[in-house]
Design goal:
The complex is a heterodimer. By secondary structure, chain A is an alpha/beta fold. Chain A contains eleven helices and ten strands. By secondary structure, chain B is an all-alpha fold. Classes of the chains: A alpha/beta, B mainly alpha.
Chain lengths: 271, 315
């Protein structure tokens, strides 16, 4: 219902330059504890934006509130608004399932479902009813192939699409977790430290993949790894104690940070 | 100054190396506990073998002499006290046990799975705790009480509702047994659902799955072995249950045509007749042969359930 609106807006805006995510006075509490303070951000469409900051600064909380997965915890209270392509996703008429379809999420620990590789790729697709009108087997295969090719996983798994996804290596699992978001054609991909469970080789491969996806999707990536933020993102947001300190182009932030806190963090004085 | 030299000159007496073989009270206590725990650990094996040997020995004479495989399993006539034509056919008894257990599972499976899904996936905080305690309390109701309910409440109710002459029948015993088996099945099924890692749920929800989709497409498939184990344990319970079935089934040797026929269960037959037979007689031994049969069946069911449940732990 809301999905065409979002897509049309996206088309009308012509991609890059416009804001994909726009927040206005976003405040968030876990019970009595306030985790986000007046977050006002504009994240640009089609870019990779990284969120950095010390542990507990609210970057993951912010990320998780963008597809409302935060609400799994019953004691979360959110105030303010998050506009995704000009639609307030906390608005009364918004369907949660549609929000999460548009805004895919990749978690810190790869979490493929304990089903086959191809079923994992098709899971979200079938969830949203696209698979309900009896699809041809060949159509399903095409979707699986396209998604896996896009995440550079096709060649390694094409001969074992029916084996369990949980048997893959962590790097492959994480790629699969990205692949399974793609068939429902999301506009935004949220990634919560997607490489922190991977070895250096896996990290490099997944980073490369994220860089490949840039432009087709708006990507917001939380990372602890400063080097990763520097090499794998175009814009960078520095958060501290639940507040946004600085939001600028990545190269500017690492070369000429505007705020003292940012400079201190980047130089490793704390965090 | 003088003090320090002294300490250096007189270290702790060097008797220690010689005491490496010293056994103090802790050493003996440790050994004693080890032995006790070992005995406790293997006692289950000893008992199960002991029971099997006992039951087999008592029924063995019949197995060697009067036993005919075809008659025992093929004949619906259980006439151990007939003057001129004694037959020991357990077909009707097997049919009785199977029909009651079958109906019990039809009653218990939706109840217990529903309860388990509610407790594991929906209920929170106090509601969940209270429900879990209540389910355990239900499981602890003695079977004779359930039999009593079958006899005094279900019996007139069935007669009135369905206009049948006898209310002690497959329906009565099946419902009673189903309610009896449901609590234990609920708690095992709930364990199986709880064992599904939360990140699977989170992954599905993040993709936009509704609560029902999460349960139906993620949690139930991931827990299916445990749930199957729960059902099998319920079946095992049904086969082994004696008192409630004896009281509610009507205890008539009969191949049931409908759920309103009275039947007799294998277990109930042993319970009702064993006290009235002469020890060592053919009838006595025939009852023990039923015992062997029941033992093997329940053993197989429980073993299968156990293997299935273990299967999920590994995978």
């Amino acid at each position: 219902m809301h999905e065409p609106i979002m897509n049309e807006t996206r088309a009308a805006n012509g991609g890059n330059g416009h804001d994909a995510i726009f927040t206005r006075d976003l405040n968030l509490w876990y019970g009595d504890f306030q985790a986000l303070f007046d977050v006002n951000l504009a994240i640009k469409d089609g870019m990779i934006t990284s969120l950095i900051g010390p542990s507990g600064c609210g970057k993951t909380t912010f990320l998780r509130s963008i597809n409302r997965i935060n609400e799994r915890l019953g004691y979360v209270r959110t105030e303010g608004s998050i506009l995704v392509f000009d639609t307030d996703i906390y608005g009364g008429e918004v369907e949660l399932a549609q929000v999460r379809k548009q805004i895919g999420m990749v978690f810190q620990r790869p979490n493929p479902l304990p089903i086959s590789i191809s079923d994992n790729v098709l899971f979200g697709f079938q969830l949203h009813g696209e698979g309900r009108t009896r699809m041809h087997k060949s159509e399903k295969e095409e979707i699986v192939e396209a998604a896996l090719k896009q995440v550079l996983l096709w060649d390694t798994v094409k001969d074992r699409l029916d084996s369990k996804a949980t048997e893959l290596s962590l790097e492959e699992q994480q790629k699969l977790c990205i692949a399974r978001l793609l068939p429902v054609k999301p506009t935004i991909l949220l990634m919560d430290e997607p490489c922190s469970a991977l070895d250096p080789k896996g990290t490099e491969a997944v980073e490369e993949l994220i860089w490949e996806l840039r432009g087709d999707y708006t990507i917001v990536i939380v990372t602890h790894n400063m080097a990763q933020a520097r090499r794998a993102s175009e814009e960078c947001i520095f958060m501290l104690m639940g507040k946004v300190v600085e939001h600028t182009a990545t190269e500017d932030m690492f070369v000429t940070p505007a705020k003292k806190e940012t400079a201190d963090y980047i130089e490793g004085r704390y965090g | 100054m003088a003090d320090t030299t002294r300490t250096v000159a007189e270290p702790i007496p060097t008797a220690a190396p010689a005491a490496f073989d010293r056994r103090d009270a802790d050493w003996y206590l440790d050994k004693a506990v080890q032995v006790l725990v070992f005995i406790g650990g293997i006692s289950a094996i000893i008992f199960i073998i002991g029971i099997f040997v006992f039951v087999t020995r008592e029924g063995f004479g019949f197995l060697l002499e009067g036993f005919s495989f075809g008659e025992f399993f093929g004949s619906p006539r259980w006439k151990p006290t007939s003057e001129y034509n004694t037959t020991y056919g357990i077909l009707a008894l097997v049919a009785g046990t199977a029909s009651v257990t079958g109906l019990a599972m039809i009653v218990a499976i939706p109840f217990s799975l529903g309860a388990a899904i509610y407790i594991a996936e929906f209920a929170t905080g106090k509601t969940r705790e209270i429900l879990k305690v209540l389910v355990e309390l239900l499981a602890a109701i003695p079977s004779v009480v359930w039999g009593f309910i079958g006899l005094t409440i279900m019996n007139p109710l069935i007669i009135e509702l369905f206009d049948v002459p006898v209310g002690l029948n497959v329906l009565n015993a099946g419902v009673i047994l189903g309610l009896m088996a449901a609590p234990i099945m609920t708690s095992i099924a709930e364990d199986a659902l709880k064992a599904v890692p939360d990140r699977y749920r989170e992954a599905a929800e993040a993709m936009g799955a509704t609560r029902w989709q999460v349960i139906y497409r993620v949690v139930l498939p991931a827990a299916k072995n445990g749930l199957l184990g729960a059902v099998l344990l319920g079946v095992g319970r049904g086969f082994g249950e004696t008192m409630a079935v004896l009281m509610a089934s009507g205890h008539a040797v009969n191949l049931p045509d409908s759920i309103f026929d009275s039947v007799r269960a294998l277990t109930a037959t042993i319970a009702a007749e064993l006290g009235e037979t002469a020890v060592g007689s053919e009838h006595y031994q025939a009852l023990f042969t039923i015992g062997i049969f029941l033992f093997i069946i329940t053993f197989l069911i429980n073993l299968t359930a156990d293997l299935i449940v273990r299967g999920i732990r590994k995978g």
